[in-house]
Amino acid sequence: MFEKLLISHCAPTLAGIKTGNLFSYHHPSGENIVSLLAIWNEKLNTRGIYLTSLKNKDSCTLIYIYRKKELLNLLEKEEIQSFLEKQDYPLFSLDSVLDHLRKRLLMSKDFPHEIGVFLGYPLEDVIGFIENRGKNYICTGCWKVYHNPRNAQRLFHCFKNCRKQFTYLYNLGLNTEELLNRRKDVLLYE
Questions:
Q1: CA-to-CA distance for 107 and 189, rounded, in angstroms?
Q2: Cα(149)–Cα(107) distance, integer angstroms
Q3: What is the 3-state secondary structure (H, E, C) of 114-135?
Q4: 3-state secondary structure of 24
Q5: What does the alpha-carbon distance between residue 27 and residue 185 come to, in Å, rounded to a whole number?
Q6: Which residues of the chain carry a pLDDT beneath 50?
Q7: Quick check: pTM over 0.90?
Q8: Which of 58, 81, 161, 174 could form a disulfide with 178 if both were Cys (CB 3.0 to 4.6 A apart)?
Q9: Residues 154 and 174: beta-carbon distance below 8 Å
Q10: Is 50 helix (H, G, I), strand (E, B) or coil?
Q11: What dihedral angle (degrees, nearest 10) is formed by the CA atoms of 185, 190, 63, 114?
């Protein structure tokens, strides 16, 4: 069940064409999420892919999967740092940034809008969403687009195609490790 959710929701991150993805995992009561994430991190960390729990409520855990190198590169950009500093993020380590995101998720009933940065959304679109309160967007797909709709639509197509192909191969019997080994063979940009 977990692996199927991971592939269906996070294929673009697994394939290396997106910084991060989020998904909610509804788990059986008593399942040890810490152990589950440790097992998956052991499988994926050598490939630069990390999973962490951002929020737990009852039998549901919000899981963030990300490519560490890509996320660190994003967080080193001056405009991203400036934006996150305005949201009171401590920028001295990745752990401190993710801990602050966890706190923001716990304090809010909705997603904090800056979460788009962690998912690899263009900063202009994250800011556009905040300034327009989610309205007046040019187009929508994985996120609401306020700038460069042509590029966004191309990315939406790539992400959709990637999910479709990873899910198809998973249903044929390939597991996550096998998909990662073959990801360059999978046609992502149809």
A1: 39
A2: 32
A3: CHHHHCCCCHHHHHHHHHCCCC
A4: strand
A5: 33
A6: 187-190
A7: yes
A8: 174
A9: no
A10: strand
A11: 130
